[in-house]
């Protein structure tokens, strides 16, 4: 290609005098060379800069994760996350900030069909409100400390669950208020016919803590990254809600 | 001439006498007669369905009854003496005293052309009778004791009896008169006359006159004779007087003892005549046929067609076979109770032979096939009734036709297939929570009302435990061998390689009361031959890769069972014991619930489900079993936020 370019130049130069031609050629070569040189140098500098940034962000993310882990450990050991702000790490990164927030409601973007969600009660409210999508029927089981059971089977669509209790939708959602007693301990909700969003809140008082959201920010250099984790107590598998369950069998007697 | 006529008449009388001499008649004593009458609510064949009022009337018109002896079955006899005051009789009443032509204390009343004599020809009593052979023109020839009248108590009703025999022309009559006079023999008054006996009266016949003894003229005498024209013979004998009151005695008593009894009795009169012993049945049955037992029913093809039978007995009078009836109840088309209809058969329960009226052993009443309309119109009910021979109507309880039934209580129910459960008795239910079927819910009594058919769950085609519970493989990988082959009393996940039997050896001491949360994996079938009921702190979850078999004698087990195969509630025979499972039964291939409590005993299909599964929500609270099942203590949702 150079040769080709040279030939083109030669062809062009035939119409110029020798001195001027030489200067022009030198200038052109210099420009080309400089361009190439600057290009190569710029690329190298950029790579160096990018490597440094990745290291910073990784260190920042790790610092954020470390902040979460430390907070969870402290939470489990002491019941609080402790003071972790501006904790320097050996890598040079810093746990810039860690905080936690208790969730006193249950908000699920999606509860899968036939799956179960659970809300814990502890005599802090006398009535809870459930909201879910109108295409879903809901089996709601309230269990008290003495293993007493109160059950509801509700829906807002006439097209599902013919025998379930029909509720009137509120603002496009199926809504049900359920009174609870001081002895009630958990509410389990099983979605039927369709997956759904679900929220459970207290109509009065407040629900006990359903989960804890911990947010940690790590910093390395000028880079900051933030990680959030929601910690919930484990929920018994859905099959424990049944007294009889057979995936494909029949029941006759 | 006159003497000639007398001789002719006498000759005629002698001729009659000769004729009479050829006749011989025999006579004896008359014992009292005891007659029993029974009053009560009478049934058939002499049975009473009430206590029996027994009234025994003893009559003896001659000397009067003196004593009656009676007894029931082999009980000691009861002797009743009758308070009978003897009534004077006339003197020489049988005419035994005297000569041929004369009778002591008796006189001839009208003597012209007549012979008054005593006859020894076939007297009615003892050896003699008196006779009158006369030729007359209708005069009343008679013997009389007017001069020997006898005092009787004033105001007393008496019966005077005499026996007569006569050979007369048809227009002649024999009879006697009863007269009264005062103590001085005056103021004679005719009190009464006997019936007339015309023509030939042969053999002896009794002639009776009932009178009331007048006041002041209480001395009586009689004129025994007959009106004769132109000739005839009249005999009289065996004159007696009895008080009408004293001639009859009554004994009343009450028979209250259930059963078929025999009353034996006889009486003796004042003359010492003894009545032959008699027997009368006293049959008391106040109890309705009972008990009703062993009700059973058999499905006869369609799912709402049954033949039904029940046993009953009437141990006293026995059943009246033809009265066996039944009726049935169904809500199909609003039929409700049917009319009573005759049963198909009544057979002796012990041998199957057709029962006869009065059968006192248990009999089996069997209905023809009863069509209850449709299977969803239950509960089906039946009732029987039958009379006993005394007329007592026994009506059975209302039976519900119950196959053995199942009850799942407390928790949700889901079956990928269909649900078809026999109806429980009134007041019970098969389930009390949401009950969902992937196919149809054919029949169930669900007290919650939440029974859904054709529900398709999110997951389909589950055929392994891994597919059912995605963490099963991970759980199994962490399992360790059962400690010494026994069920664990320490938290953890355990495994038994191959099939396993929960028997006495498999249950360590304190297992039921242990505070333990464990998963037990059985790589084969699980057989349970021993009852065990985990306490409130025992949370054991079994994962069984084969089937679960429950021995027929096992009545109570606990735990959550996740079974790859089937659950068999009665693996080793036709169990008649109730099985209660405290926990959850999850199977991939379904269930075999085959126990049958029958219809007898304190626990039967009318009182209890054959299988009862009681949900244990405590598993939802126990953090240890939840950890073992879910694999962690808490759940975390990580995300990076800006």
Question: What does this entry look like structurally?
Answer:
The complex is a heterodimer of chains A (253) and B (642). Chain A is of the alpha+beta class. In chain A, 29% of the residues lie in helices and 38% in strands. Chain A has a domain at 105-208: Jelly Rolls (Sandwich). Chain B is mainly beta and 642 residues long. Chain B folds into four domains: 2-25 and 88-243, Galactose-binding domain-like (Jelly Rolls, Sandwich), CATH 2.60.120.260; 33-86 and 247-284, Immunoglobulin-like (Sandwich); 293-400, Immunoglobulin-like (Sandwich); 461-628, no CATH class. Chain B is 6% helix and 42% strand. Chain B contains four helices and 50 strands. The model of chain B is unreliable at 1-5 and 7-28 (pLDDT under 50). Classes of the chains: A alpha+beta (253), B mainly beta (642). The interface between A and B is large, with 54 and 79 residues.
Write the layout of secondary structure elements.
The complex is a heterodimer of chains A (253) and B (642).
Chain A: H1 2-13, H2 18-78, E1 87-88, E2 94-103, E3 106-111, E4 116-120, E5 127-133, E6 137-144, E7 149-155, E8 165-166, E9 173-179, E10 184-192, E11 196-202, E12 211-220, E13 223-232, E14 242-246, E15 251-252
Parallel strand pairs in A: 7-8
Antiparallel strand pairs in A: 1-2, 2-12, 3-11, 4-10, 5-9, 5-11, 6-7, 6-10, 12-13
Chain B: H1 2-21, E1 33-39, E2 47-48, E3 52-59, E4 65-72, E5 78-81, E6 107-108, E7 114-119, E8 129-135, E9 139-144, E10 150-151, E11 157-167, E12 173-181, E13 189-193, E14 197-198, E15 201-212, E16 219-228, E17 231-243, E18 248-255, E19 259-269, E20 278-284, E21 293-299, E22 305-312, E23 325-330, E24 336-337, E25 341-342, E26 345-348, E27 363-366, E28 370-371, E29 381-387, E30 393-395, E31 399-400, E32 406-409, E33 412-415, E34 419-420, E35 435-437, E36 441-443, E37 451-452, H2 465-468, H3 472-477, E38 480-481, E39 492-496, E40 500-502, E41 516-522, E42 526-528, E43 538-544, E44 548-550, E45 556-563, E46 567-568, E47 579-587, E48 591-592, E49 611-614, H4 623-630, E50 635-641
């Amino acid at each position: 290609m150079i040769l080709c370019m040279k030939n083109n130049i030669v062809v062009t130069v035939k119409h110029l005098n020798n001195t001027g031609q030489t200067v022009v050629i030198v200038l052109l070569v210099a420009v080309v060379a400089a361009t190439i040189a600057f290009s190569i140098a710029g690329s190298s500098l950029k790579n160096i800069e990018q490597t440094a940034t990745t290291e910073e962000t990784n260190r920042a993310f790790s610092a954020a994760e470390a902040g979460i882990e430390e907070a969870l450990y402290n939470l489990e050991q002491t019941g609080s996350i402790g003071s972790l702000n501006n904790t320097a790490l050996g890598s040079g990164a810093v746990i810039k900030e860690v905080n936690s927030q208790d969730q006193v409601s249950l908000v699920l973007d999606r509860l899968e069909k036939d799956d179960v969600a659970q809300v814990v009660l502890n005599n802090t409210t006398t009535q809870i409100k459930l909201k879910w999508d109108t295409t879903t029927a809901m089996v709601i089981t309230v269990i008290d400390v003495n293993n007493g059971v109160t059950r509801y089977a509700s829906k807002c669509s006439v097209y599902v669950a013919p025998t379930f209790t029909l509720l009137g939708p509120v603002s496009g959602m199926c809504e049900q208020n359920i009174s609870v007693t001081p002895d009630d301990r958990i509410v389990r909700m099983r979605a039927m016919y369709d997956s759904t969003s679900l929220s459970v809140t207290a109509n009065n008082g407040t629900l006990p803590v359903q989960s804890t959201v911990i947010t940690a920010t790590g910093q390395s250099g000028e880079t900051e990254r933030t990680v959030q984790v929601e910690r919930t107590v484990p929920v018994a598998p859905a099959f424990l809600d049944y007294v009889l369950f057979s995936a494909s069998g029949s029941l006759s007697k | 001439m006159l003497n000639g006529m007398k001789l002719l008449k006498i000759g005629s009388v002698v001729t009659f006498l000769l004729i009479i001499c050829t006749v011989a008649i025999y006579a004896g004593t008359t014992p009292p007669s005891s007659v029993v009458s029974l009053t009560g609510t009478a049934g058939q064949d002499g049975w009473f369905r009430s206590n029996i009022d027994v009234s025994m009337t003893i009559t003896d018109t001659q000397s009067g009854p003196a004593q009656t002896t009676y007894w029931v079955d082999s009980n000691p006899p009861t002797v009743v003496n009758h308070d009978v005051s003897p009534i004077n009789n006339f003197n020489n009443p049988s005419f035994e005293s005297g000569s041929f032509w004369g009778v002591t204390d008796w006189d001839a009343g009208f003597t012209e052309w007549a012979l008054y004599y005593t006859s020894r020809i076939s007297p009615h009593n003892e050896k003699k009778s008196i006779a009158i052979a006369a030729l007359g023109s209708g005069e009343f020839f008679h013997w009389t004791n007017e001069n020997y009248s006898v005092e009787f108590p004033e105001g007393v009703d008496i019966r005077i009896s005499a026996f007569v025999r006569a050979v007369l022309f048809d227009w002649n009559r024999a009879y006697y008169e009863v007269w009264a006079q005062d103590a001085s023999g005056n103021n004679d008054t005719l009190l009464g006359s006997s019936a007339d006996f015309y023509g030939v009266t042969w053999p002896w016949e009794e002639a009776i006159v009932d009178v009331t003894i007048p006041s002041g003229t209480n001395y009586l005498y009689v004129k025994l004779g007959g009106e004769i024209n132109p000739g005839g013979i009249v005999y009289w004998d065996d004159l007696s007087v009895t008080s009408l009151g004293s001639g009859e005695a009554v004994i009343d008593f009450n028979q209250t003892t259930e059963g078929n009894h025999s009353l034996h009795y006889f009486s003796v009169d004042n003359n010492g005549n003894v009545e032959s012993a008699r027997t009368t049945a006293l049959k008391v049955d106040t109890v309705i046929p009972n008990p009703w037992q062993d009700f059973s029913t058999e499905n006869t093809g369609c799912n709402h067609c049954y033949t039904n039978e029940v046993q009953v007995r009437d141990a006293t009078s026995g059943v009246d076979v033809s009265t066996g009836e039944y009726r049935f109840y169904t809500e199909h088309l609003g039929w409700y109770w049917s009319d009573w209809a005759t049963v198909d058969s009544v057979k002796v329960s012990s041998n199957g032979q057709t029962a006869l009226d009065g059968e006192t052993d248990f009999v089996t009443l069997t209905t023809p096939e009863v069509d209850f309309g449709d299977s969803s119109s239950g509960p089906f009910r039946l009732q029987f009734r039958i009379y006993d021979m005394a007329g007592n109507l026994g009506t059975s309880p209302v039976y519900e036709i119950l196959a053995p039934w199942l009850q799942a209580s407390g928790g949700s129910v889901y079956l990928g297939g269909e649900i078809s459960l026999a109806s429980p008795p009134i007041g019970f239910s098969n389930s009390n929570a949401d009950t969902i079927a992937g196919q149809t819910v054919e029949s169930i009594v669900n007290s919650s009302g939440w029974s859904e058919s054709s529900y398709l769950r999110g997951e389909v085609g589950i055929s392994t435990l891994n597919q059912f519970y995605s963490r099963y493989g991970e759980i199994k990988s962490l399992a360790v061998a059962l400690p010494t082959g026994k069920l664990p009393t320490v938290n953890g996940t355990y495994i038994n390689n191959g099939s396993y039997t929960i028997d006495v050896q498999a249950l360590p001491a304190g297992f039921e009361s242990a505070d333990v949360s464990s998963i037990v994996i059985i790589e084969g079938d699980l057989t349970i031959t021993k009852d065990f009921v985990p306490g409130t702190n025992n949370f054991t979850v079994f994962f069984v890769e084969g089937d679960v078999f429950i021995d027929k004698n096992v009545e109570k087990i606990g735990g959550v069972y996740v079974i790859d195969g089937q659950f068999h509630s009665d693996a080793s025979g036709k169990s008649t014991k109730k099985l209660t499972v405290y926990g959850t039964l999850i199977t991939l291939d379904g269930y075999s619930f085959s126990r049958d409590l029958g219809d007898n005993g304190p626990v039967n299909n009318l009182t209890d489900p054959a299988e009862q599964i009681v949900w244990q929500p405590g598993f939802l609270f126990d953090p240890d079993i939840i950890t073992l099942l879910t694999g962690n203590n808490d759940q975390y949702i990580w995300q990076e936020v800006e």
